[in-house]
Amino acid sequence: MSTNVQLAIFEGPLDLLLHLIKKNEVSITDIPIATITEQYLATLELMQNLNLDVAGEFLVMAATLIHIKSRMLLPAESGETDEDEGVDPREDLVRRLLEYQRFKDAATELEQRELLTRDVFVRSTSLTEEAAAPGFREVSLFELLTALRRVIERLPKDDAHEVILEKITVREKMTLILDLLRARGNLLFEALFSEVKSRMEIVVTFLAMLELVKMRAIRIFQEALNGPIHIEAAVGIEQAAERVAMPETEEGKNGTSGS
Amino acid sequence: MERADLKSIVESLLFVADGPLTLQRLAEVLEGSARDEIGSVLEELQAELENERRGVRLVEVAGGYQLRTPKVNADWVKKLFGGRPPRMSRATLETLAIIAYRQPVTRAEIEAIRGVDVDGVVSTLLERNLIRAVARKDVPGRPFLYGTTPEFLQLFNLKDLSHLPTLKEMEEITLPEVQGDSLPLESTEES
Q: Which residues have C-beta within 8 Å of that of residue B51, sequence separation ≥ 6?
């Protein structure tokens, strides 16, 4: 696979950690480091398998987690055994997570204010002038990856390794998704993958979906944490449809893939 | 000038203005009327629009006064405009929150909190005029320091920066008691 989707628009390692902490329903201040490290590394591996551009920060954090895990296994250092048994190796990370969580909370509070062009309007504003946020919660990349893993796990385990050269490109999948959305308005994430039979096709479908998000042709949201993920047509859909329909122009080099 | 006339004129000025009108600007236009009087007319107008549940309300935003539609009518206004307003991503909101609360702040400082590169987001915010470079920090490389703009206040319906929702204290998010001075791990320092 040659596809390389830039994911700079998505969040970083701290966000992934907070996501895992929430998913496991554990406390930031008492992170079960072995479990979280394992899940963190598994997510990273999945991202790499997808050829997603895993930023260096994710790897630095992986190293940090492994280091903390190893320190937790060591007996308390000599000299400071009893009362306060030295410093918790997780302390520094906990501080960073809390600090980041503060600003995530602040961002949520900002988003809940009466936003111009979403909740309130002034005489001369056109609706498209400013940015506003959707009513549903946005789905993070990590939630998408979790959903993707579920889809992959559902694939029938077929040991016979058939090599079929499927010529499905990301561009073709994008067209397919756009057609479905234009006909129906919205879809469930899982429905996109219902007909898909190979791992490669799953990956191509997933990448096509990400490309469309980037083009603002579709919107991915959830009504509740861990609820079903919805995909819906967004403002840029017609424009995107035109661009995707165009014969291989410069955009083409970004969107093709095969096996 | 009769008070009723003054109120009527103030309403007209607010209606035609492109952005929030400051008391200062109103006083310049309405020469002859005392600021106090204009201020009390504004208050009266604000209460009237509110009490009569009118379709526009007088809001104090970005250091001035502006007529805005109330939130309860949002769906109808959106229907008139058609389409969906472009959305603001989490990354954008978080970066904006950090800049709003920590300003003036450098890119590196924002990155230290978010744990991820923010170049793209910062450029977008600059383009949208929600932040601006306010100065350069006196450290090697002299990086830009960023702060929020009046447009930021307008977008989030804020009278001024002191009206930002209070940032939770770290302790409130449950930090365990830290004894003595902390001993950082040797190999975890971020760049």
A: none
Query: Residue B185, class by beta-carbon neighbours within 10 Å (0-12 exposed, 13-18 middle, 19+ buried)?
Result: middle
B155 in contact with chain A, both atoms CB, cutoff 8 A = yes
User: Does pTM surpass 0.80?
Assistant: no
CA atoms within 13 A on the CB side of B15: 9
| Cβ separation A116–B154 shorter than 8 A | yes
| Cβ B68 vs Cβ A122: under 8 Å | yes
ipTM metric? 0.81
In this structure, what DSSP letter does residue B21 have? Answer: B
pLDDT tens string B106-130: 999 999 999 988 988 999 899 889 9
User: What string of H, E and C letters represents the secondary structure of A203-235?
Assistant: HHHHHHHHHHHHCCCEEEEECCCCCCEEEEECC
Mutation site, B126, B170, B177, B188, interface A, largest A CB count within 10 A? B188
Task: State which residue of chain A sits closest to B129, comparing Cα positions.
Answer: A130
CB contact under 8 Å between A91 and B117, yes or no, is no
Q: Does B71 sit within 8 Å of A120, measured CB to CB?
A: yes
According to DSSP, residue B57 is labeled E
Angle between helices A33-49 and A13-23 (to 10 degrees): 120
- On chain B, the residues whose CB falls within 8 A of the CB of A138 are 87, 89-90
